[in-house]
């Protein structure tokens, strides 16, 4: 890869792959520089009417030519988030989503809620949830189910807002967090464990939030919950957040013990849905490198090689062009002829042989011509061989002084 970059310093796929290598070697500065160089190379190839700020440009991830742009943007926003620039990372996340909002090939919907909370863009997150819930069912993703009520809670804590808005935000936060705990009970205990919070005896001993909730869920749901807990647990460490979460947890336990219909409905949904995760979720988990979620990946994903410049390519890829295959013409030359060809590239024993088996005189003449060419080639080779005599010493005795 390094040799290829020396010859072609802006080869995008090599830049992406080498960036991963540098990041694994803890050379974060070089890894960021390579990603920025890849983005510069891609930006130079933009069409004049391709505008990133319009929000109307679309790219098909199924075409291999477009994947490098998606991946470079995703890796760049991950570096931005680690450098403490969550608002800029959020804007890049919006950009990736705008390139293909229907298919979301890198599944940035699993990340946009975290960046919104980090950037304190609570209004944007709640508005996105309200506008997309009807056709995307965002509440069925654990990250939106828990992050949206958390955003409403933070909005209710902003004193500059009118009291009516704060009261409405508190009510929505309470309703949504209870629905989230009912729908995804396996999130609570790992979340408290990551936050180093010890639950009370009632919550810790209740089977609804216990180990059985994690064991009974499907592998696909386990990947989503592990990804959310591993990524956003730092946002829940605030004592005010834990104090807000505790009474709603007890309210959910009361509903479970009372046999509420919502609990039965949520259990039925968990059994029917989340049977298998789509390919874009696997791709997102691989790119995010969250160890909690990576450990839950199925064997069919972990057993295949994953390249940094094209992780898990779509199964319905659209190939715009194919590389022409090299055709090798079989040769019927003899071993002696091939030997002389290796010494003299211009030598051709069969250059003028005519394929006329009926004319014996012509065949004999062709044979004589071939032998003559062979002899001429041998004479040329022998004539070009020069023997160099060893240097003679005119004064073998030397002229040194004798005592």
Automatic annotation (TrEMBL):
Transmembrane segments: none
A Pfam family that the UniProt record links to this protein: Tcf25
Gene Ontology cellular component list: RQC complex
SUPFAM superfamilies xrefs: TPR-like
Name by which UniProt lists this protein: TCF25 factor
Organism whose genome encodes this protein: Chaetops frenatus (Rufous rock-jumper)
Gene for this chain: Tcf25
